[in-house]
Design a protein that fits this description.
Layout: H1 7-23, E1 28-31, H2 34-41, E2 53-57, E3 62-66, H3 71-77, E4 82-85, H4 94-104, E5 111-114, H5 123-133, E6 138-141, H6 145-149, H7 155-178, H8 185-198, E7 209-212, E8 232-242, E9 245-255, H9 260-277, H10 286-299, E10 309-313, E11 327-329, E12 341-350, E13 355-364, E14 371-372, E15 381-382
Parallel strand pairs: 1-5, 3-4, 5-6, 9-15
Antiparallel strand pairs: 1-2, 2-3, 7-8, 8-9, 9-13, 10-11, 10-12, 12-13, 13-14
Helix pairs in contact: 7-8, 9-10
Organism: Rhizobium hainanense
Domain Creatinase N-terminal: 13-151
Domain Peptidase M24: 160-366
C-alpha cells in the first residue's frame, strides 16, 4: 500500500480525533476536507473536486463515500476498508446517498459534525446536504476540529516537513543560478519546480509565485512571462513539498544595481523577522506575531505598504492553497505550541516607488527559540 506513515501513526491520529469528538459530544464527523482525510487515513486524491465524504463514527469506524474513479485510489493509498460508491447519473444527488448511508450506520437522530469551510464542500453541496439532513439529526459546524488537531506535528510529520524545507532550498539554489539580466522567468520557474521534482517532491498545493518589474509587487501567481532587465527586481514565493507537506519560502532578488529603497525595505524586513523570532514560541499567540510585525513596519512609516497578515501554519495541504486556516493576523488568540510548522513572511509592496521587497521562511517551533528550516541565510539577494 502507498502509505507515507505507519499504521500506528494513523491509529494515534484517530484516537486524538475521537477524544475531541467526545469532548464536543459528537456521534459522527463528516470530513470533506481532503487534507483531513489524508491526515487521518492516508487517502490521497484530487477527487475532492467532486462529491465525497469520510464518515467517522464515535466508535472509530470509518466509511468513505466517493465515486468509482476513486475506489482504487482509496484502496491503494489509505487504511480505509469500508468504501461505498455513489453512481454518476443524470440529476444525481449524492447527498441522498449519504443520508441513506448515515441511516445504515445507525446515525438517525445523531449529533453530527460537518466540515463546511473547505474547498471539498461547494455551496451547492452545502445546500443539498443541509436540505437532506435538516430533520435527520443535529448538525454542527465542525470545520476546524481536525484542522486544529493538525497544527502540531508528530515526529513522523516533522521528517516530511524538514525534507520539504530541503527541497525549497534546492529550488532557491536553482533560481539564483539563473537570476541575471536577460534571464527568462520561464527558465527560472522551470528550474525551481524541476528541483523539487528531481528531489522526489510533489506538486505544490498552489502555483509558485514569480514576478519581475512592476509584477514583482504581486503576491499571487499570474499567467505570462518576461525577461529580466539589466536593473530589475524578481519576487519569488514557492514551497518544497514532500508527501504533501509544505515548507514555503519567499525572497525578492534585485537584479543589477539595487536602489536605496530596496536596501531600506530589506532592512525593515530583516529587523521585523528577527524580532518575530524572539516571540515565535509557546507563551505567545498568533496575534502577538502580527502585532510585532505591524509595530515595526508602522514605526518605519510602512503601514500603507505592508499586508494585514504576515504568515500562517503549514502542513499537508491540497489544491487550491498550501495555507492552513490559522494565520498571523490581528487579534488571533490561538496559542503557539511546540512542533508547529509556521511560515512567516515579510511582504512590502511600495506602489509609490514601484519597489518590492519580501523575506520569508518556514520555522519549526520548539519549547524556546524557533528552528529555521532553511539552510539559506536571511541576506540581501543581488544578482
Amino acid at each position: 500500500m502507498a502509505l507515507h506513515f505507519e499504521r500506528s501513526e494513523f491509529e494515534a491520529r484517530l484516537a486524538r480525533l475521537l477524544a475531541r469528538m467526545q469532548e464536543e459530544k459528537l456521534d459522527a464527523m463528516l470530513l470533506f476536507a481532503q487534507e483531513s482525510m489524508y491526515w487521518l487515513t492516508g487517502y490521497d486524491t484530487f477527487g475532492f473536486c467532486f462529491f465525497q465524504t469520510l464518515v467517522v463514527k464515535a466508535d472509530g469506524s470509518l466509511t468513505l463515500l466517493t465515486r468509482s474513479a476513486d475506489l482504487r485510489q482509496a484502496q491503494l493509498t489509505s487504511v480505509i476498508t469500508d468504501i461505498r460508491i455513489w453512481v454518476d447519473r443524470v440529476n444525481a444527488d449524492p447527498t441522498l446517498d449519504l443520508k441513506e448511508l448515515l441511516s445504515d450506520l445507525d446515525l438517525l437522530g445523531a449529533r453530527i459534525g460537518i466540515e463546511y469551510d473547505t474547498h471539498g464542500m461547494t455551496g451547492r453541496i452545502a445546500r443539498l446536504l443541509d436540505h437532506q439532513l435538516a430533520s435527520f439529526g443535529q448538525i454542527i459546524d465542525a470545520s476546524y476540529l481536525v484542522s486544529r488537531l493538525r497544527l502540531t506535528k508528530s515526529p513522523a510529520e516533522i521528517a516530511h516537513v524538514e525534507r520539504a524545507a530541503a527541497l525549497a532550498d534546492d529550488a532557491l539554489d536553482a533560481a539564483l543560478s539563473l537570476a541575471k539580466p536577460s534571464a527568462d522567468e520561464s527558465d527560472i520557474l522551470a528550474a525551481m519546480q524541476g528541483a523539487v521534482f528531481s528531489g522526489g517532491g510533489d506538486y505544490p498545493a498552489n502555483e509558485f509565485i514569480i514576478g519581475s518589474g512592476v509584477e514583482a509587487l504581486l503576491c499571487r501567481y499570474k499567467s505570462g512571462r518576461r525577461k529580466l532587465d539589466a536593473n530589475d527586481q524578481l519576487t519569488l514565493e514557492w514551497a518544497g513539498v514532500d508527501a504533501h507537506y509544505h515548507a514555503a519560502m519567499m525572497r525578492t532578488v534585485v537584479i543589477g544595481t539595487p536602489s536605496h529603497r530596496h536596501r531600506e525595505l530589506f532592512s525593515a524586513c530583516l529587523e521585523t523577522l528577527q524580532a518575530i523570532e524572539t516571540i515565535l514560541m509557546p507563551g505567545h499567540t498568533f496575534g502577538d506575531v502580527f502585532d510585532m510585525h505591524a509595530k515595526i513596519m508602522d514605526e518605519r512609516g510602512l503601514a500603507r505598504h505592508r499586508l494585514n497578515a504576515c504568515g500562517y501554519s503549514l502542513g499537508a495541504r491540497f489544491s487550491p492553497s498550501w495555507m492552513e486556516h490559522e494565520m498571523f493576523h490581528m487579534g488571533n488568540p490561538l496559542e503557539i505550541q511546540e512542533n508547529m510548522s509556521l511560515f512567516v513572511h515579510m511582504i512590502i509592496m511600495d506602489s509609490d516607488s514601484g519597489t518590492a521587497m519580501t523575506l520569508g521562511q518556514t520555522y519549526l517551533t520548539t519549547s524556546q527559540a524557533p528552528k529555521a528550516l532553511s539552510r539559506h541565510p536571511l541576506e540581501f539577494l543581488n544578482r
